[in-house]
Every structure is written in structure tokens, then in C-alpha cells.
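Recap quiz, item 2
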Amino acid sequence: MKNIFKQMAVILLFFCLWYVFFLFLTYHFYPENTVVDNSRLHERNNRLVLGKLKSNIFLNDAQNILLGFWVTKHESKRIIIIGGSNALRINPAVMQKALPDFTINLAAVRNSNITQLRDIVYVVRKSSPGSLKGTIFIIGVCFATFFNDNASGGHVLYENKNLTFLEAEGLRYGLYKLRDNKLELVLAPRMMPLAVHLLRPFLLCDLVFYDLKSYYDNSFASLHAVQKKPQDLKGEEFKQASLAEWRDSLGNIRDFAEDGIMSDFVTLCKEIEKSGASVVIVDLPSAPWMQNESEYYKKYTLKRLLYLDEDRIIPRLRYVNLATLLPPITDGDFVDSVHPTKEEGEMWSKAIAGFVLSQRKFLGF
Amino acid sequence: MDFLSIKFFIFFFSAICIFYLSPLRYRISVVFPLLNLFFILTYVNNLSQLLPLVVFLGAGFIGIRLVETFANRVAFITSLSVILVIFVYLKKYAFVSFLPFISRSYLSVGLSYILFRMVQMLIDVYQKSIQERVSLVSFSNFCCNFLTFVSGPIQRYQDYKLQESSLGQKALTEREVFDSFSRMIHGLFKVVILSTLCMGYYKWFFSFMQDSTVNESSLVLCRKFILASFFCSLYLYFNFSGYMDIVISFGKILGFELPENFNRPFESRSFLEFWSRWHITLSEWFKFYLFNPFVLFLTDKWPNRKAVPYYGVLAYFFVFFIMGAWHGSSWVFLIYGLFLGAGMSINKLFDVLMRKYYSVQYKKIIEHGLSGLLGTALTFSYWSMGTSCCWLDLKDLVKLMIKFKIQGFLMSFLLGIFLWAGALWLVRGFKYIFGRGITSLNGNFYFSRTWLSFELFIVIGFWFYGFGGIPDFVYKAF
Amino acid sequence: MTDARSQIKIRLNKVFRDVFDNGLIEVFGEMTAKDISEWDSLMHVVLVAAIQKEFGVRFSAAQIGQLKNVGEVLDLLEKHNSR
């Protein structure tokens, strides 16, 4: 027995040395961020990054929210942008110029629907001590925000359960658990920053493994013809492929943007408002051909008349259709059906910042 | 209990503490049964799920008692048949699918391995190889040993009893303890990282192969197929042998010697040799209780000297057909059985013919150099191809067969031999150049500890990274 | 070595020569399958069958499986004879 514990202790001691070494390494390479900014992470997820390690220790946009909010400073005046992958194209640096008093957090996550938005708001609320007064949530919505939870939209399969990307990432380190399909903290909120700091060596591991994997995937992929993605196609073929892809991820049109979903969204906005924060709902435009051809888009335009405009009755809440603030948009402003080009993204950012400034009285700053 | 969970590691530490802190005389009679019970209970949500297992064990114990008391053929055959019938029913084999199965979920983990243990005890009690009376505690400890419950190694009752009586008599040396920990961490490395990677690539190549259109050149298709097969068998190896490493070293720390299940199987130079290196305890079991009696029966019945080698061909086919079919309850595994049987009997036939027409000493001549390398590659290639197919369902398997035809399989097989021979050659070259250096480094106190703890760190890191994608223990399903 | 044991050994040697068709075999206690190239798992059973016949004994499945060397065979046969 003595021998067993002695050997165990020796191995653990060496393990701790490694741990401390890697912990030190992470602080050297990844100084702590002051804001949560998913735009850089989003870019990283699309290509190989060996040698480009110096942006953020968190592996992906979901991790950046679930863990990142616990270790960033909480300024009294901040803007938190949430939404789907098209909201990720908003450029926080451009907004910062127009709104110098605010810290801009870009906390959008790909494939977000109401469930993910609610989870993000939950994390923000739990991680902010006191009330959310002075915080402005900018919710970037588009038709693709309103799909039913049962639709496949970006879900990952884990232990035969369909989890959203955010949920799976929340469960990964055991800091969150699932209850009634909602993420919940496992530890007390005051323990969370410490836990996130302690996880850093393993977060580094994640980054290295991720890079290695994408490196190998890329090198193997050249050996085999991979199925073409819609982005690589042109013209009518591309349109049909994207429409099919949307149908696949948004599910049955009958379950899409149902009254229940729309009123859930309104409830969410009211909850945010109750916690002291202000809400700006920004309706992000899609490519004109998409607006013309997608049945989902058509259903959404009907529903938003009914629900989103109604939100005007909530104080400290504003709704704006971004397209009305922009010069006429064309298909060329988008890289695919919903994601704007870099230049268009900057235009969006400017327009949103301008809108926030114009509503300062209502928003209370 | 999932072996790759925080729960398991808490269990691991507490088992060691409880085991060593309790007085020696209670370890076997009280502590060990309690640990086993606790371990099994983690697999069920409510106690009723345990009922089939309890019935199965009960039938086995009563059977053994009957054979002990009456010691006649009737008691033996009745008990054996009852156990087999319950087993086939609980495992829901396809050939009895007309029966009304229990629709509620119940614990089916470990049933196969319990069957092997109970049949072994039954036969040995009947044949008087086990002479002392089997007590209920020994029986349940042996059958439900948490170390071997999930999937072996399949220990023999007599060996287990020896362990029981010598438990705690010899303290482990520091070296032994370190080696056990080191083996456990290597095992974790195999399961968590290597098997996950191999599984990923297996699935990847397999999906490429299944999606591929007909106009693709057949060589490309064959390459995908053989790579998928290789990764599949490597995945099985890392997964299974990694778990064995964990279990055997855990046992060692508690003071139990469990039998080895693997002895570098991918270095076998023939299919016959392969089965003395892969899942050893299973092949041994089949040798003891099926192969030997079957050959004995044949030689007794038709004692013709000239025919003896061909009895071997027949017996290998028969035994490996059964063994392959045991692996699963669906029809695909019958095909797998045929495939294994065919491999073994062709190999035996080759052996017979070589001895007859070339030289009795032929093995010594062809086992070395290039021919040995080719033999190894051939063995691996054949086995991989068969193994990768048994994960398909019957419909997909037939589709694959139509797509490939005989020449496709043959071409993949040849390509596989070529690829594996090349890979082996590289590995051997690497070992030749760096082997001695690595061994001497491992002898260094600081290096070995530093390396081991780094490995542990990487395992934990990868465990987080591969969250939800780390494969479960494959052999649990069998 | 006792007289009975050497008697058994002589008879056993005859069986070995017969089974492996090799007049030069001289059995010894530590002799294993490695010492005779024909001794594989199939011939093991054939050998056991021949021994059973010669000595009029029956081994159990566990005994057959666990026999590792000639010494163990001798022990078993001796034990049987003394009964």
C-alpha cells in the first residue's frame, strides 16, 4: 500500500510540473482578453492556424462565450452582440470607433436559434455581478434564427442525443450541465473564473489537437475528392444547393417560425429587459435572391410583422430592419445566401452603431 | 461504469484504499463482492434490469451444484443446455428471432464472458478437474469480478482460486507498482487517443468508399477499402488491448494476476499464429473445450494416420466458424465465422501441403526475411478485410460484395499485403535505429516519470478534446 | 527417478516416436512443443489420444489443454498409476 501511494504521488508530482509549465506557457502566448470577440475565432475555424496561435485560447465561438465571459472585465457600459453566423460578420472595431465609451463584445455563435440565444444570455447574466444596467444587447436576427429545436440546424450528435453546438461545448469540460434542455452552471458563479483559469493548459491542448487535426484533414482531403460545397458552385446550381441546405437544417416549414417560437423570442427580450439591460433587435438582411426564392424567408417576413414590431411596446427595446438603413443591397454584397462580404459587414457595423447612437435616449445612455 | 470517466477514477482510488485498508480475511469474502456489486450496479438504472443476469448466474450455480452432487452425464448435459438456452435467449440471436424476447431493457454487458466462465467450471467440475466444492462467494467473485466483468480476460476458475488463496501474501515492489501505473497510462493512451484516431480514419475512408460512384477507377476504390480495413483493425487492437492494459494493471495493483490477452498480434507470420497472439484467452478457451475434444473425437472414431492433418483442417474450420459467429447475434457474424474458418483451414492446408511436399522444417526456412514479412502482411491484410466487414449490416455487406466482386477483394487484398509489408518494414527500421536508445532512456528514473506524466497530461487533454467522440469499449458489445 | 516413472518414460518414448514418425526422439522432462517441430496444437491432441490409448487413461479437457511439457505428462500418468 505504501509503495502504491508513493509511486502515485511521484507520478502526480511530475504531472503537476507539466501542468504548471503549460499554465505558464498559456499566459505567455495568450494574455487574457478584455472583451469577448468571436469574429477572429470565426475566421480561425475556417482555415489552418498553425503558427497563428496568438489570438485567443478558446477553441471556438461557443467556448469563447461559455468560458470567456468569466474571465473578461465587466465594464459598466458594454454592448453584447448575439445572433447567428451572419452576426459574426459584424466588425466590432468599426463599431468601437463610433461608440468609444462602450466595450463591444461580439458573442454570436453559428447556427443560433432561440435556445442558443437564451443560453448565451444566461451565461452573460450569471457572469455579471449585479444588474445588467448599462449593457446593450444587440440581437442580430434573420429568418434562420427561428427554426424549431427539433430541426437539425447545426446540431451535433453526442451519446445519441441531439445537442446544439453550444450545449455540447458546455458539457465538454463539465462546467455546465443540461437541465430541461437549458444549460446550467455546475459550480457556484464565484468559482467559475478560477475553474476557467485552471483549465487553461487543457484548452491549449485542445488548440494543438485542433490544429493537428485540420492539418491532417487537409492533407488527406487532397487525396480524395470531397463532395462540393454550395459555396464552390456557381449560378443557378449554387442557388439550388443552398436552398436545399437550408431546407435540410431548418427542418419542416410547418414547424418553422411558429407562433410558439416567435413568442418565446419576445419572452426572451422581455427577460433581458427585466434584468436591466437594453435590447436592440437588428433584422439582418439576406441576399436578394434568397429573399425572393426561399419559402422560409417568406414565412418569416409575415411573422415578423406580427411579433417583432410588437416589441416596440417594451421600454428600452428597439427593433430595426437593417436593410432600411443601408444603400440598396445586391447579391454581390454576400458571399453566399446570408453571409455578407467583409466590406458589407463593415457597412452593417457602421449602420448599427449609428442606429444605437440615434436611440441613445431610449436606450438610456 | 464507463472506464473513461471521472467516476471510474474515483472508483479506482477508493477501491485501492478500501481493499488495502480492510483486514486480509475480509478482502475476498466481503470487500471484493461489494466492489463487484457496486461496479455492476453502475450499469443499471433500476434493480429489475439485473434480473436476467441474476437468473443466468443462478442457473449456472445450480447447474454446477447438480453436477457436483450427481456427477453424471445427465446432470451435466441438462445444466449445460439450460445455460446455453438462457444465454441465446438473452443475447437475442437472430436464428431464434421468432421467440418473444423481453422488450424491457436489461443488463446484457458481460453475459458472453460469464457464459465462458460458467461453462468452463461446469466442464471442469464434471471432469473432476475442479475437485473442491465451489462456494457461492467464489462463484460470484469469479463470474462477476469487476476487473474482468465487461470483457475478460477470460480467466480459469482454478487460476482465480490460486489468486484468492495467495492474495496479500506478497507485497508489490516499487518497480512493480510503477510498471503497473505505467501500463495503465499506456492503456489509456491507446484507448483514448490511438483508437479514437484509428476509428476516425476508418469511418472516414469507409464513408468515402461507400459514397464513391461507380465510374471511379477500381484501384482507388480498393485503396480506400483496404485503408478502411487497416484502420478498423488497428482501432480494434488499440481499443481492446488498451482496456486490457488498464484492467490487468488495475488487477495487479490490487494483487491479482490476470492472464494476458495480447502478445503483439500484428507480428504473427501466419493466421494460425495470429490466434495464439490475439484475444489469447478466448482462443485458449475454444482450444480447450471445442478444438481438442473435437479432434479427439475424430481420431478416436476414425484413427487413420494419413487423415489426421485433414482433421486439423476440418476442426479449425469448425471451431473458428463458431468463434466468429459468437461475436454477434446478427447474420453478418455467420459470414464472419465462415471467413475466419476459411482462413484457418486454408492456412492449415498450406501447412499440411508444405510439410508433405517441401519440408517438415519449412517454417524455420520461410519465417525469416522477406517471406516472413510477407506472411505477416498477408495475415494482417486477410484479417483486417474480414473484420472491417463485420460492422456492416447484411444489406450493406451484400451491396459491397456486388460492388467489389471477387477481383475487387483480391486486388484490395494484394494491395493490403504490399502496404502493410512496407509499413512493417519502416517500423522495424525505426526500431532497429532507435530501439536501444529508447529502452535506455526508459530506464532513467526522471525520464520515465517525466514521459509518463506527459502522456497522462496528453490523455486528459485529448479526452476533453474528443468529448463525446471517444469510442466506447468495443468488446463490451460481444 | 523411481522405477515406475522410468518404466512409464520408456513407454511414453515409444508413443512419441510412433506419433511423430521419428525413431530418433528421446523424451526428457523439460521437453516441450518447441523441441519437436511437428508438435503443434493439432498433433498435441493426436499425441494425447495415443497416450490415452497406450496407458488406458482418460484426461480431462483442462488437463489436455494445460499439458506443457513431457514432465507434466509423466506426473499425470504416475499419479494415475498409483491410484
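The first helix of chain A runs from residue 2 to 29.
DSSP finds 13 helices and nine strands in chain A.
End of item.
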